[in-house]
Amino acid sequence: MAQLDDIIAPVGDAFRAFRTLLNETTVSEQPFMRPITRDILRSGGKQMRPLLTLLTAALHGDANDPKVQAGAVLIEMIHWSTLVHDDVIDEAYVRRGQWTPGTLLRSKSAVLVGDYLFSKGLAQASRAGGYGAMRSATRAIELIVDGELRQMEHARRLDNTEETYTDIIRHKTAALIASAAECGVLPAFGDDAEAPQVRDMYRFGELLGLAFQIKDDLLDFGFAEDGSRLKTGKVSCNDLRERKMTLPLIRAMEDLSSGERRTVLKHLRRASERNESVEWLRDFVARSNGAAYSVQIMERYHREAVELLAVYPDSPVRRALEAYAAYVIGRAF
């Protein structure tokens, strides 16, 4: 699998410029906010979404375009904002071995921090005249919220199907990654979201987002593609504890009798309080073809995404995008 530095290399200067702009954007006049934004910057992860914005921009034009740079900042700020809000909603205390902002702040303060980050990102895009990015990103937020609400409702009813699951992750996860890809290419086509290249890049990001979430769901069970156990920074089987029916479990339940299905749902209802129910469900999925089937679907999305790049001539940027797609499904974190 390609190293992240190799993926960044074709847009290295633009990526460094983005990070400088991100630091400038997060500076706050409020003393309360300064240590919070500093900590978020330090633990900001790999910044894969804005990197995608810069790569799709470079494929079609200039990744240093101020509108592109502002769009990349907006995407990252929205990502941070949704993470902070998710930590409050999910009562998540640790991510990749670190305390989350939602844990370090009271819930009310954490929500305000999320709102602050979002507003700063929008302001940066507005100053740069990145109105296409603003439209794209606000649409993504609408889809994310809709996906969260659908997931909460189906977790309550325990009635997820594969179709429902796909619809939820298309909204909840893939929408922002699709927007990240779209924001990079929009300035090259006058912010015309209907331009064929813009639509293709949106679809490219959406497919990678779907693959990303399936990979995340596999990792949450603690299983690699060969069924071996993995050590991840996430709490193992956290989705089960929150009664979320993800693709490995949905597939595992597909051919069950009504009595067997009731047994699975009984354990799922108890998973938030009983570790033995979590282990029972994990073993149940491990014995099924749920993980293998999920890998097949993930790889299909990956292939469809890479096929969208075939119309572009070979170049370091195209190869970086292909490596980016491989990185999404090859990660083990």
UniProtKB/TrEMBL annotation:
GO terms for biological process: isoprenoid biosynthetic process. Keywords: Magnesium, Metal-binding, Transferase. Its cofactor is Mg(2+). GO terms for molecular function: all-trans-octaprenyl-diphosphate synthase activity; metal ion binding. It comes from the Bacteria. SUPFAM superfamilies: Terpenoid synthases. Pfam families: polyprenyl_synt. It is an enzyme of class 2 (transferase). Its EC number is 2.5.1.90. Signal peptide: none annotated. Belongs to the FPP/GGPP synthase family. This is Octaprenyl-diphosphate synthase.
